[in-house]
Input
Amino acid sequence: MKIKSAFLSAIITSFIITGCGGDSNSSSTASDLTILKNVTVIDGTNGNPIIDASIIIKDNKIEAIQASSESIDKNATVIDMTGKYVLPGFIDAHIHLAGDEETGDGEQLLDNIFKGGVTTVRDMAGNGTALKTIKTAAESSLVSRPKVYFSALLGGREFLKNDPRVAPTAGSSTIGEVPWMKFYDTDTNVEELVREAKEFGVTGLKFYADISNELLIAATEEAEKQGLETWAHAALFTATPRDVAISGVNSMSHTDMLALTDLETLPKYIDVAEFFMMGGELGNADPNGAENLELYQTLIANDVVLEPTISPFVAREQGVEKAIRYAKSAYENGVMIGVGTDNDGTVLSEMKLLMENLGMSESEVIIAATANNAKSLGMESSIGTVEVGKVADLVVVSKNPLLNIDNLSTVTHVIKEGKIHEISN
Output
């Protein structure tokens, strides 16, 4: 839950692109059109790139994608982007912006990653008061920061009272008794828990630890009734990876936990947390054994996105091989892979790790960081691909990332809900 200072890199100036006499977008009316002309579109659907295209943006959405040779509205603002490539804006599906009540580090992190083409983030547990402030400050399309969606953390009473990360995250609030961080046990009124979390402004529930299968099912069912998404660690101690896969959550995080699929029951997290976090072996399931092959099929059938989060294992120099081994097996068996940094590295560096260690292609990791992550958020109908009708969250690069994924570092523009931000390197 702590911001990693190494990720807060040197500031690169970002500003809204302007036309003659001022900001061409700030005075726009609902009828104005912006056209990105002469681009190659990599739309995130696994289709072939659309060469020499024009993307027509009206208000905050993509109105049309057409050949650049076709006629265009003479009153439109036309931006010639010859030689450039347009992709969906990237999503970091696993980030922590507020390890305490301060907002500065989280806001600086958002400033930095926006310059790399990240237009949306999913915060997977932090101080709710700070997160609401950070989210509100980033909402405007004119602000050069990704949009923020955050979670309410659910955990067992013993876990929340004893985990050393919880107290600073709770800040001046009472641990386990605020809408964004709740004790969850058999005494909990689940309907009230979900309602309070939703009223506070969270997008989803994050199941962390010391949660049984029965409690998991009860909360996922109630969340669906009330319109919240559900996200979970791959094992919840006592709920097993198989339980999580069956439960109906949108996504599962941390592939090292798939080593536990050979265990029918799991201990409470508080009893094994230190041992497990230090690389101790609680389970040793074969990544391609019967238990995991069955798990993969369940994940596929239930449309669950699996986030390996390789970067934090690399940063800690612990559990790397394990996390990779299970992630690779899941990918090779058809499981949908997502991209989350957990505050270590960047979305691009995580994508490169997935390519190098899982064998994913450039196109596949782009889809993982866009369309698949949008699915994790429950927002696949509005973001994640470059398609007509979707929100115009886009990134423009000067070199072809399908030839070399490092070309994603050549960002020239980031488009947030139709507003064009020019990135100066």
